[in-house]
Amino acid sequence: MNKMGQGRRAHVIVVGNEKGGSGKSTTAMHIAVALLKDGHSVATIDIDARQGTFSRYIANRERFISVSNNATEMPAHFQIDAIEDGTAPEAQLEKLRYIIEGAWVNHTAVVIDAPGSDNTMSRLAHSFADTLVTPINDSLIDFDVLAHVDGAKMRILAPSHYSEMVWQQKKVRADRDGGSIDWIVLRNRISSLDSHNAREVDRLVKDLSKRIGFRTVPGLSERVIFRELFLVGLTILDLKDATGAKALSPSHIAARQEVLSIITAIGLHRPDVAAL
Predict the structure, then answer these.
(1) What's the helix, strand, coil split of the chain in %, to 5?
(2) Enclosing H/E stretch for 6
(3) Nearest to 3 by CA among 85, 108, 105, 110
(4) pTM above 0.85?
(5) What gap in Å lies between CA 71 and CA 64, rounded to an integer?
(6) Nearest to 114, CA basis, from 159, 162, 160, 75
(7) Most confident of 2-16, 23-37, 153-167, 224-238
(8) Domains and CATH numbers, the chain
C-alpha cells in the first residue's frame, strides 16, 4: 500500500460545512456521480453517520439499480460509525486513515461528506483534503459559518470557528506530507433576483476570500428536482440515461452545467474520456 504522500494516489475531495441545510450531501453525491461519468474510479466516504444523508442517498441508488436493472454507475462506498461526544477513539480515527489510504491506491478520486459539526473525525478528514468544497446558501445567516459580521457596519469582525479549523488542518496537511488544500466555497441557491442581501453577501465573500485564501464558485440553484432525485438515488446527470427521457428541460440542462462547472473548478474534468 502507498505510504502517505508517496507515489500516485487519488484526489481527495472533502465536502465540509459546520451548518446544516447547505446542500452538502447533495453536492457530494453530484460531484461523485459527475466524476464517475467522467471516467474516474470513485470512492465515497460518509463520516456524518448521525445524519447519514450521503449513505441513504447511495442506498437509494443501489435500490434503483436493483429494481430497474439499470447499469448506473456506483462508487465504492464506506460509512464511519457516529461518535457521541465529538472525540473519536484512536481506533476509529485509524480506520478512517486506512480507508483513505486504500482509496488512494484503488481509485482516482475520493469524495468525503463531513458532518455539520466540529469533531476529531471531521478534522482528520479535512487534513487529507486536496480540495475542500464548502457549500453555503447565499445569505448573511449562512455566511456566519465563514466569518462573524458586524451587523450594523456590515464588516467582517473575525473568521469563524470553522475557518479557524480549516486553517489548522491546512497546517497539519503541510506538516504531514508537504501538501496543500485548495479551498472552494460554493455559493448554493443563488437567487436570480437582485437584492441588497445578495450584494452584501457577494461583497463580504470576496473580501474574506482574500483574507483567508479560498476560491468562490457558483454552486447549485434551488430546484425541486434535487429533492425528488434523492428519493431514487439519482442525480441531475442521470436523468436522460437512467430514466429514458428523450429530452431535458432548459432547467435540467442548466442544472447539469452547474455540476460540470464545479468539476471543472476542482480540476478533475476529463473531456477526452467522457462527456457529461
Answers:
(1) 45, 15, 40
(2) none
(3) 105
(4) yes
(5) 10
(6) 162
(7) 23-37
(8) 11-266 (3.40.50.300)
